[in-house]
Amino acid sequence: MPTVEFEGHTFNIDEDGFIDSFENFNEKWIQLVKKEEGIDELNEEHKMVINVLQDYYKKNGIAPMVRILSKLTGFKLKHIYELFPSGPGKGACKMAGLPKPTGCV
Amino acid sequence: MADFPKPKEMFDSIDYALPEKQWEDVPPDLSPGNFCYPTKRKNLEYLGLPANKDEWSPSDEDWNLPDNWQTIIHEGFKDLLGKYRSLKIFMDTCVRCGACADKCHFFIGTGDPKNMPVLRAELLRSVYRNDFTMAGKILGSIGGARKLTKDVIKEWFSYFYQCSECRRCSVYCPYGIDTAEITMMGRELLTLLGLNINWILEPAANCFRTGNHLGIQPHAFKEMVEFFCDDIEDITGVRVNPTFNRKGAEILFVTPSGDVFADPGTYTMMGYLMLFEHIGLDYTLSTYASEGGNFGLFTSADMMKRLNAKMYAESKRLGVKWILGGECGHMWRVINQYMETMNGPADFLEVPVSPITGTRFANAASTKMVHIAEFTADLIRNNKLKLDPSRNDKNIVTFHDSCNPARGMGLFDEPRYVLKNVCNNFYDMPESTIREQTFCCGSGSGLNTEEIMDLRMRGGLPRANAVQYVHDKYGVNMLACVCAIDRAALPPLMDYWVPGVGVTGLHELVGNALVMEGETERTVDLRQEPLKEEEEDADE
């Protein structure tokens, strides 16, 4: 499995650069993905999205569907794209350390 | 994907010129972007499938095949030929007439001769001749035989994952050779060597663990459906009350998990829930049989059988009379063509009878499973629904026959009958692109993964081209379908080739048009967007 090093931490990543397991997530991961996403500084809204994603994942073992993410944060999909240019999956979920959903999606 | 080609560039890059080299001498392109990611080891282990020695990538020179890989394939091939007389016939009967050659959407979109169904089958057939026929053994390459080498394995991996098992080619084959089954056999053989793709086997592993491809656990499944109930109440003022795992219900409803997770399928899910509430259907959802799809179909017969068994197991446990199935594509191929002999007989179920109309679905006498489009068409035909099609007036709709319900079960007229009753504006695409000749979305059979987006856009080109035709001619702006992979795959396809065309499930439009008892005046559709375009404009 490929690895990436960032400020003294080594992360195992998959082909799309998602972390191998949420268990290996730490704050450094956010800093790393933040750079990839071209975000200078995380604001309160970014942090809220990440917290909501992680809370949901801890409870349910999957990422929330987009409509639930919108409801829990109060942000429309368009605004989530403004916050995370790669979108809720490849941007926000990736930064939060969640795996990518697979199947008919 | 910064270097992704623009539509015109992609279109102009398709080259149908005669290749300079013989096909045997052209290696497959396994550079990044041209293959699906291999299965993660944890998923192979979970499913009890052979795992390759180490982590690998199709772009590696050495695939770390097991030492006895040739024996494994030879014995595996022999085993399949013994099990399936159809395979032996398909291997023996092709006369290379070429009728299938230009019928494959992947050939049309790539111009690659190995995407001609005849040549895709030849990849396997040449090895068959070499290993299992006298003529091949004596005549060798003159007789079309080819030795199995590591490069052949690579070629199989490349091209059996460039086929979406849509079976359009089979419609034109004078012998009825089912190239989808050839692809299935090819994938099954590759799986013996630990070679398969993660986008298929992670959902399969999830399905064994949680009951559905997405890995939705029971409590989350219930919560998601209840989320839709809240939205339905906001839109219509009517509270719908689905039940879960309820013993003694008359009907078990099974739909792909994409419908409870991914937009726009979620709106179709809302449509089902509204319909069932409105007609007072005695049904239940299951958090165990919470998946209609079956990614086992794309891996091996054994995997398909094991995954599919849960629908009958759950219906037996709950004591229902029959099973109603949602808008899924390949689910219906599994049900209609394999389920009874594979998992049946379901003698604990009854021949389905609609409790609302009394119609006996004799066509479902063996599987005891009815497709939701037939069920709803029957309700409409018997005047059991009050519909206001004008609520769908902003949609000018065409219908994409999803490959498997179309060619796998002949479901052509029911969805159109429903559409014509719930919409005022419906236009079919040209005849050679619909019904049994329908073109694939380009992402079926587990190929709806992002790393091969270039191939998906090429494979979806013929479908998009037909949509473009009705878009230009009639102003079509909505593509309806009855498959969850379609609902996931067609939106990016439309955005790429025909911007301005949305994608919907059939029952989303039913939900919009359905006049429910006690409902408040509707101002928005199921997407909570204004019913009429003008209001939307005024809003913004």
Largest interface chains and counts: A-B, 18 and 40 residues
- The largest beta-sheet of chain A arranges its strands as 1-2
Mean pLDDT of chain B: 96
Mean pLDDT of chain A: 92
For the biggest sheet of chain A, the summary is: 2 strands, antiparallel
Radius of gyration from the alpha-carbon trace of chain B, in angstroms: 24 Å
Instruction: Describe the largest sheet of chain B.
Output: 4 strands, parallel
The total domain count of chain B is 2
Order of helix and strand elements from N to C terminus of chain A: EEHHHHH
Distance between the termini of chain B: 31 Å
Largest sheet of chain B, order of strands side by side? 2-1-3-4
Count every helix of chain B, treating DSSP H or I runs of 4 or more residues as helices: 24
CATH topology call of chain A: Arc Repressor Mutant, subunit A
Gyration radius from CA atoms of chain A, angstroms: 13 Å
Q: Could you explain how this protein is built, in words?
A:
The complex is a heterodimer of chains A (105) and B (540). Chain A has 105 residues and is mostly helical. Chain A contains five helices and two strands. In chain A, strands 1-2 form a two-stranded antiparallel ribbon. The longest helix of chain A has 17 residues, at 44-60. The two termini of chain A are 25 Å apart. The relative contact order of chain A is 0.17. The mean pLDDT of chain A is 92. Chain B is mostly helical. Chain B has helices at residues 7-13, 41-47, 69-83, 85-93, 105-110, 117-132, 134-139, 150-160, 168-172, 179-192, 198-210, 218-236, 258-261, 265-279, 301-318, 330-343, 372-381, 403-409, 413-422, 453-459, 461-474, 484-497, 506-513, 533-539; strands at 251-254, 283-285, 322-325, 369-371, 397-399, 478-481, 502-505. In chain B, the strands form two sheets. Chain B has a four-stranded parallel beta sheet. In chain B, helix 16 (330-343) links the parallel strand 3 (322-325) and strand 4. Chain B is globular, with a radius of gyration of 24 Å. Chain B folds into two domains: 7-30 and 50-195, Fumarate Reductase Iron-sulfur Protein, Chain B, domain 2, CATH 1.10.1060; 207-539, no CATH class. The chains are: A mainly alpha (105), B mainly alpha (540). Chains A and B meet through helix 3 of A and helix 11, helix 12, helix 13 and helix 22 of B.
